Amino acid sequence: MALPQAQIPPRGERLYEGKAKVVYATADPGLVRIYFKDDATAFDGRKRGTIGEKGRLNARIAAHLFRVVEAGGVPTHLVAVAGEQELLARRVAIIPLEVVVRNVVAGSLARRLGLAPGQVLEEPVLELYYKRDDLGDPLINRAHVRLLGIATAEELDRIEALALAVNRILRPYLAERDLILVDFKLEFGRSGDDILLADEISPDTCRLWDRSTGEPLDKDRFRHDLGGVADAYAEVWRRLEARG
């Protein structure tokens, strides 16, 4: 949703800058502004570039999909759209886990397990990665999560349940818009005693294939020099906006 500009607190100090976003404090200690950059990276930052309009499109797509999953019962950090490429969000303490849900074999799953790319999985595969750039975000399991003190068993149960709920909501929703949700990455944060879906859901964090052609409409176009990256992101937004 969009709030009147007068109701959106202005940016304060910069709290964090990552590869794709900048997080700013506001006068409200419970709220932050998240600016989506046009910068693009791949392969743990070894490849860098700029995708025109990416920040604006990802902010809109993320806000739209957060609202979709919220309607399905998944709590998120989103408060409002705060500008062309900014969101107003609840301030959370990010849990250093990347939760990946896979519906179709692609990327590292094919390489690690010797599976054929494009193979539809009988049930979703959920993977956990330790969010540490200096270690290359390694694949870990629940025992590692306990060893590292990242989350309690109860928190991890909740995180995994929410991730699978996002998949159950978005997979048919996107299919109705002729998009195959191949796989996606989620991040979660603590807000008091609550765990909220945070970060973003966008073509930066999802593999999305056109249902008719199998063409990727996501960051794989940047990763593998396929061209038409900005057009692919714009096409995803067009389909979401057109169907509501």
TrEMBL record:
<dbReference type="Pfam" id="PF01259">
    <property type="entry name" value="SAICAR_synt"/>
</dbReference>
<feature type="domain" description="SAICAR synthetase/ADE2 N-terminal">
    <location>
        <begin position="15"/>
        <end position="239"/>
    </location>
</feature>
<keyword id="KW-0658">Purine biosynthesis</keyword>
<comment type="similarity">
    <text>Belongs to the SAICAR synthetase family.</text>
</comment>
<dbReference type="InterPro" id="IPR050089">
    <property type="entry name" value="SAICAR_synthetase"/>
</dbReference>
<keyword id="KW-0436">Ligase</keyword>
<dbReference type="InterPro" id="IPR033934">
    <property type="entry name" value="SAICAR_synt_PurC"/>
</dbReference>
<dbReference type="InterPro" id="IPR001636">
    <property type="entry name" value="SAICAR_synth"/>
</dbReference>
<dbReference type="GO" id="GO:0004639">
    <property type="term" value="F:phosphoribosylaminoimidazolesuccinocarboxamide synthase activity"/>
</dbReference>
<keyword id="KW-0067">ATP-binding</keyword>
<dbReference type="InterPro" id="IPR018236">
    <property type="entry name" value="SAICAR_synthetase_CS"/>
</dbReference>
<dbReference type="InterPro" id="IPR028923">
    <property type="entry name" value="SAICAR_synt/ADE2_N"/>
</dbReference>
<keyword id="KW-0547">Nucleotide-binding</keyword>
<comment type="pathway">
    <text>Purine metabolism; IMP biosynthesis via de novo pathway; 5-amino-1-(5-phospho-D-ribosyl)imidazole-4-carboxamide from 5-amino-1-(5-phospho-D-ribosyl)imidazole-4-carboxylate: step 1/2.</text>
</comment>
<protein>
    <recommendedName>
        <fullName>Phosphoribosylaminoimidazole-succinocarboxamide synthase</fullName>
        <ecNumber>6.3.2.6</ecNumber>
    </recommendedName>
</protein>
